[in-house]
């Protein structure tokens, strides 16, 4: 995207710099140098109505405005912030939105007049940008600032893309080592009475154990609890950790401290989703990596691949996420595509080929030991299911989540809710029906689609179109990597062998091609519905195809398993079913069924739309040449995001209600929405939604970007760009 014309002298700060530069020490020095005559005091008295009025300074002797130059304001931070909030944040939620009913105008003194002349800042967007900038300036310890008008009226598409690239990724990046373990250690899902930072180290990483024991001893104020995991991680062991939930160690590298010359360990960074999700997630990481690559941050995506390889080596799988309570389950697998996209970017760097080799070997191990082994593998169909092990009630959900399920059992056993959970988790009471319920519940969480009426009470039995598409992609990618990069001979070292594999045996692309052909045949047989023109899940226990219409049907195009004829039908039949105002729905309204008090909305059903669904569908449609559909769907999603960003104080959330025009970020299903809870200024957005924005922009042209920047709805844009037929 082009940025506005900038004509700056060398002692000026780029108006679109990151807050640490724009409000940091250098900016302070330059603005002081430039405006010597300024005499603002920070000790201002409130006016009679209790508000702070920016004080009118003395008129400067020199001329005021040079109209050709971009406008800048001279702003007293604390007083303007107080005035702005009191006047414009009328509902007192620390944000200025279209729902506030203030006058929507505030005057700022121009810098060129030393604050004497004023100029009006008008409308929700500019005022909320002002609020955000003042919060940032305050956080950087500034009492007064020179503020570029272009930072307030910046094209919103540019602004959001800039914030994602320059600020949000940084806000979501974590490193686990002595430098920042207190940040990564925080877990808003730790509901225990003493939520202290705790780290579990796998048995096979004694160097990390020694490292963290020393960190804990050197910095007792952290209260870091360092625990060694048992060699064999069983469901019982995982259950017993529920009272002491903790972070799981990820990859570290040995480095030499440049000042002391001593060798130490350094954590490999990763991006977290945001909100309550402050750990490395499985499929979120893949989506985030698409955004990181789009933003030239491939080193972070690479580091996440390396962390996944560590997880496969030490925990046996890519985890749902890196907390102790997630140890038994995985999430939708994307490792091969992620590693190959990273490789494409870094292939000229030293060590790139080894990076890819390790990732492909890890993926092969994961493929066999997790997805193609029982209980996930179904030998009858040859297809796979989300079906993780585990015991008892998942501890990470809100306390209220399972009340309606568990209370009748607590009553039956004359126990309190807590007593019952304790007794049930430890096998003191036996309730096979509940075991079945939680088997499926764990599977739902492993599927990433927690929760949905599509999967509730049945997920562990389903060969889903989602998972089998992803495994087909593994098979095709592994075949391609072996053939293209490893001379069609990949040696499998002992540490990557599974079951009865012979150490150091050679694998070739044809072995993997055969696997993909077998899967395609099974998917055609069990998952494709010729009459309906879509792929569906298959119930391996009832031995019948399901009828829930899910937007994951497009994953068959993402992975390439759909024939061109199937793809054409999917597009014709599927798109009209799933397309809504803001992009693609997770599922159809009809499939979800009626909702009400007794049957509340589930967040992965209609009317919600999620970034990963959009991103995979765009890529899928693009792969088969449906470029007009891609353009339209991308536009709708980006439009919805941009409009919410403009109208609601810079908000970027975990998911959207894609049927809701005015406030699509409002989702009250299940645990609500993540990314809403900020005061004044959003610092992180939400991982995969950030990614969807910058990834989506790659499918747009300059014309679309301009139209998005002026908040032109799709229909209006489409009408304006309709090709005029030749006469
Ligand atoms: O705490 C409840 C559940 O939260 C997670 O699921 C949701 O957030 C994840 C992170 O963004 C995302 O990967 C998943 O698709 C979302 O539904 C977690 O993954 C669940 O296991 C957990 O029970
Ligand atoms: Ca408000």
Radius of gyration: 28 Å
The portion of residues assigned to helices is 40-55%
Bound molecules: ligand LLGJG24Q, calcium ion
Integer average pLDDT: 93
- Number of E-type strands: 24
Overview of the structural elements:
The chain contains 25 helices and 24 strands. It is mostly helical. Among the domains are: 136 residues, no CATH class; 152 residues, no CATH class. A 3-stranded parallel β-sheet has the order 7-6-8, with helices on one face. The chain has a 3-stranded antiparallel β-sheet with strand order 14-19-20. It has a two-stranded antiparallel ribbon with strand order 1-4. Helix 13 crosses helix 14 and helix 22 crosses helix 23. The site of the ligand OC[C@H]1O[C@H](O[C@H]2O[C@H](CO)[C@@H](O)[C@H](O)[C@H]2O)[C@H](O)[C@@H](O)[C@@H]1O has 13 residues, from helix 9.
Indicate the topology:
Blueprint: H1 19-22, H2 25-34, E1 72-76, H3 77-88, E2 105-109, E3 118-122, H4 123-139, E4 144-148, H5 156-172, E5 173-174, H6 181-185, E6 198-201, H7 206-218, E7 225-228, H8 235-240, E8 247-248, E9 252-256, E10 263-267, E11 270-271, H9 282-294, H10 298-315, H11 335-346, H12 352-371, E12 377-378, E13 383-384, H13 403-412, H14 417-425, H15 432-446, E14 462-463, H16 465-485, E15 490-492, E16 505-507, H17 509-526, E17 528-529, E18 534-535, E19 538-539, E20 544-545, H18 555-558, H19 564-578, E21 579-580, E22 583-584, H20 589-592, E23 608-610, H21 611-623, H22 627-647, E24 655-657, H23 687-697, H24 702-709, H25 714-721
Parallel strand pairs: 6-7, 6-8
Antiparallel strand pairs: 1-4, 2-3, 5-11, 9-10, 12-13, 14-19, 15-16, 17-18, 19-20, 21-22, 23-24
The site of the ligand OC[C@H]1O[C@H](O[C@H]2O[C@H](CO)[C@@H](O)[C@H](O)[C@H]2O)[C@H](O)[C@@H](O)[C@@H]1O has 13 residues, from helix 9.
């Amino acid at each position: 995207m082009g940025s506005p014309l900038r004509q700056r002298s060398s002692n000026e700060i780029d108006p679109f710099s990151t807050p640490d530069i724009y409000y940091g020490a250098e900016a302070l020095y330059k603005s002081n140098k430039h405006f010597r005559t300024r005499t603002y005091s920070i000790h201002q008295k409130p006016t009679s109505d209790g508000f702070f009025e920016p004080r009118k300074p003395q008129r400067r002797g020199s001329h005021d405005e040079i109209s050709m130059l971009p406008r800048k304001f001279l702003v007293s931070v604390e007083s303007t912030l107080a005035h702005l909030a009191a006047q414009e944040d009328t509902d007192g939620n620390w944000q200025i939105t279209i729902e506030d009913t203030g006058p929507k105008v505030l005057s700022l003194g121009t810098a060129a007049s030393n604050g004497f002349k004023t100029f009006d800042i008008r409308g929700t967007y500019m005022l909320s940008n002002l609020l955000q900038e003042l919060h940032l300036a305050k956080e950087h310890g500034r009492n007064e600032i020179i503020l570029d008008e272009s930072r307030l009226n910046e094209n919103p598409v540019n602004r959001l893309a800039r914030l994602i690239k320059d600020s949000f990724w940084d806000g979501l990046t974590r490193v686990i080592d002595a430098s920042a373990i207190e940040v990564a250690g925080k877990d808003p899902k730790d509901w225990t009475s003493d939520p202290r930072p705790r780290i579990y180290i796998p048995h096979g990483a004694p160097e990390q154990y020694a490292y963290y024991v020393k960190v804990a001893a050197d910095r007792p104020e952290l209260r870091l609890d360092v625990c060694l995991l048992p060699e064999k991680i069983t469901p019982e062991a995982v259950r017993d950790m529920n009272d002491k939930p903790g972070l799981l160690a990820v990859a570290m590298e040995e480095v030499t401290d440049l000042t002391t010359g001593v060798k130490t360990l350094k954590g490999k960074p990763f991006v977290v989703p945001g909100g309550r999700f402050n750990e490395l997630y499985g499929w979120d990481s893949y989506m985030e990596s698409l955004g990181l690559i789009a933003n030239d941050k491939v080193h972070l995506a690479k580091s996440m691949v390396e962390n996944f390889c560590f997880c496969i080596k030490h925990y046996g799988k890519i985890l749902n996420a890196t907390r102790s309570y997630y140890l038994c389950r995985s999430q939708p697998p994307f490792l091969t595509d992620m590693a190959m996209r990273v490789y494409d970017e870094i292939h000229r760097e030293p060590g790139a080929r080894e990076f890819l080799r390790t990732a492909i070997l890890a993926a092969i191990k994961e493929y066999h030991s997790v997805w193609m082994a029982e209980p996930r593998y179904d030998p009858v169909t040859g297809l796979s299911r989300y079906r993780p092990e585990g015991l008892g009630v998942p501890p990470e959900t809100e306390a209220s989540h399972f009340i309606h399920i568990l209370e009748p059992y607590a009553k039956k056993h004359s126990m309190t809710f807590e007593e019952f959970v304790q007794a049930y988790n430890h096998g003191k009471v036996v309730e096979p029906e509940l075991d079945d319920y939680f088997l499926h519940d764990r599977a739902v969480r492993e599927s990433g689609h927690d929760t949905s009426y599509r999967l509730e009470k049945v997920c562990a039995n389903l060969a889903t179109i989602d998972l089998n598409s992803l495994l087909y992609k593994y098979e095709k990618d592994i075949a391609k990597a072996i053939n293209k990069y490893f001379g069609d001979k990949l040696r499998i070292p002992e540490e990557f062998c599974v079951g009865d594999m012979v150490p150091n045996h050679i694998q070739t692309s044809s072995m993997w091609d055969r696997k993909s052909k077998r899967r395609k045949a099974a998917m055609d047989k069990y998952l494709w519905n010729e009459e309906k023109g879509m792929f569906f899940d298959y119930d391996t226990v009832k031995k019948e195809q399901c009828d829930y219409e899910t937007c994951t049907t497009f994953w068959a195009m993402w992975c390439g398993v759909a024939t061109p004829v199937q793809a054409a039908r999917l597009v014709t039949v599927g798109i009209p079913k799933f397309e809504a105002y803001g992009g693609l729905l997770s599922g159809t309204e009809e499939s979800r069924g009626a909702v009400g008090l007794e049957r509340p909305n589930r967040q992965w059903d209609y009317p919600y739309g999620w970034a990963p669904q959009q991103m995979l569908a765009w890529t899928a449609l693009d792969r088969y040449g449906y470029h007009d559909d891609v353009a339209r769907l991308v536009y709708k999603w980006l439009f919805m995001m941009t409009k919410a960003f403009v109208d609601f104080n810079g908000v970027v959330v975990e998911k959207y209600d894609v049927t809701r025009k005015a406030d699509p970020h409002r989702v009250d299903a299940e645990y609500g929405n993540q990314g809403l809870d900020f005061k004044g200024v959003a610092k992180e957005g939400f991982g995969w939604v950030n990614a969807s924005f910058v990834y989506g922009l790659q499918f747009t042209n300059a014309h679309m970007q301009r139209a998005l920047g002026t908040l032109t709805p799709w229909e209006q844009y489409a009408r304006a760009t309709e090709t005029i037929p030749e006469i």
